[in-house]
Amino acid sequence: MKRITIRDVSVKAGVSTAAVSYVLNGREGKVSPETVLKVRRAAEELNYIPDFSARSLVNNKSKLIGVVIPQTEDRKQLLLQNPFYSELICGIEARLRQSGYHMILSGVEKGEGYLDTSMQRNLDGAIITGIYQESFYEDLKKVRMPIVLIDSYIYDSHFHVVGIDDELGGYMATKHFIDNGHTNIALVTGLIRKDGVVEKRFLGYKRALKEAGLFYHPDYVFEHSVTYEYGQEAAHLIAAKHPEITAVFATSDLMAMGVMRGLRDAGKQVPEHVSVIGFDDISVARMSTPPLTTIMQDTIARGITAADRLLTAIGNTDGELPAEPTIMPLTLVDRDTVRKLT
Amino acid sequence: MKRITIRDVSVKAGVSTAAVSYVLNGREGKVSPETVLKVRRAAEELNYIPDFSARSLVNNKSKLIGVVIPQTEDRKQLLLQNPFYSELICGIEARLRQSGYHMILSGVEKGEGYLDTSMQRNLDGAIITGIYQESFYEDLKKVRMPIVLIDSYIYDSHFHVVGIDDELGGYMATKHFIDNGHTNIALVTGLIRKDGVVEKRFLGYKRALKEAGLFYHPDYVFEHSVTYEYGQEAAHLIAAKHPEITAVFATSDLMAMGVMRGLRDAGKQVPEHVSVIGFDDISVARMSTPPLTTIMQDTIARGITAADRLLTAIGNTDGELPAEPTIMPLTLVDRDTVRKLT
DNA sequence: GCCTGTTAGTTAATCGATTAAACCATAATG
DNA sequence: CATTATGGTTTAATCGATTAACTAACAGGC
């Protein structure tokens, strides 16, 4: 089955390829109504489908968006096991498709940059999730396409940011514990990196403590990787060394699930002995036993918004308007893992 | 920042673009060692990155693979909420990247085909998950690229299949119940469609019953959508109308999780009152309470295998060797949701 | 009748690669 | 010495679009 080209259409319609191109791209002001009809019919009958590579070559628009997802440390696999990213992708894909764009989903090799991919594929834009080294972002700035960051707070006119108020989220969770009478509150979290979301949540945690006149115990903070396994491990530590702790704020639902398992391993009931709050409200949060109280963000909506913002940035060829971050709302979903201590 | 082209490299190296192309594509037999060196150096210094669109145009190879994921019924979103697909994608992406390929991840509009995308983007191959209407596959056959199917059993020389022995899986689960003394075994499943994976699991279920001399009760089969919610609903029905049922085989872990919740809602303990077995062993299976007994398949490995098979098919330009399906192994992971009735 | 403007359409250059074919030394062969 | 290989390199066509520049025809305006 040979490819149908614009040439074939032009021959069938009895006009030049230029005319076909004009018609098919909506520059109809330049073409008479009857020609438009002839071309339309010919294209239809031949079932003509344009070649995006050829297009991309001449006008530098590929209709391709790069989406970068963080990877597991050990292997070279995407971190999709955290449903947060899956949901994000659902949103992104839906919005992109709506506008005829496609998504190239990939991870980034450790130490490698993203410049290669972006140039090879002539990407029109990119959505970057996860947190990387400084040099990675420096590289990205050299690229001339719009970029939306999801997980990091780099306020730079080169980058768009679609985020949430992570500090507030951390505050809300901690405050909720305090309001329910808890005073010994642990934090279980991924690595706290500068300008990362986790750092902000950590700051919110501290603010709530301070505001309530509670001490901040550095040894109540359990900081490592954002995994179920680490949550479990942290819970073991808490149960063994800090029996006074009655509440655990995990900065990710995945970790919160692990914490709950770990506590149960150690013979502690949730929420009777220890209360737990998570973050994100991924779909499994409501499936857990007991259903997890968590800070909810509408991740799909966030994906849609990120894609939306990227697309409008791509549309605006008139210079680079520096980007004011978009902040999505948060809600505390009060399920069954927080006990009221009166 | 203007693009560095092969022309720039050729000028800097003082040779023709053809020479540069030969060097950079490894046809070094045609070029003298010193030219190779000059070109290498020039390309390096200019940081030359080839344009895949241009390449694709001339030799019809885009190094792009289409990956299709099913969508939710109502909205237009990908079905990534089922971690099965996320894991598959992890595997696929890892393998593709290793060979310099990229993945275009998308859903398919209801009723639409995939021909457009495949032609527009000049895809080198595709991995199709999910089950679609007959016409969709007919369309796919017209395309000249290799295709790997993941969720359907269409044995046709046009398609490669990387599957599991679903019938056996269904049999294993049911047999496990029977071996533990259960006789009233329900099946909770997605829509049973011809040539789909679910149908095979259903057949395995029936075979195990028959082999054990047990009756097959059509009203023990709860068939609807592959969601947590439906699992929950089915469990309610079971608890209300069929108190004699002591075991539930759910053809997806997601549904199994819902079943467990539903049983608990209805005041039934798992596994004390009712036992449950799932399918897939998605990561949340081990996180559930109690940890779910399930039929394990290594989904990441399956993704890797699918990509691998696709890549070799792409490599083999020597005619279309019809495809013998690849069958991945299954294991029953015996966790804590099956009770022994002695 | 001459000039200008408008409309509809075509021609041909261009994007950035690849590659068959041509070219040209120089070496080997009869 | 004429002829044929051979190895290294360049020339130029090609892939499938887009689009600036051009042409031709015709309508008005003076």
Automatic annotation (TrEMBL), chains A, B:
Cross-referenced PROSITE patterns: HTH_LACI_2
GO molecular function: DNA binding
Domain HTH lacI-type: 4-59
Keyword list, A-Z: DNA-binding, Transcription, Transcription regulation
Domain of life the protein comes from: Bacteria
A Pfam family recorded for this sequence: Peripla_BP_3
Family annotation (CDD domains): HTH_LacI, PBP1_LacI_sugar_binding-like
Descriptive protein name: LacI family DNA-binding transcriptional regulator
Origin species: Cohnella silvisoli
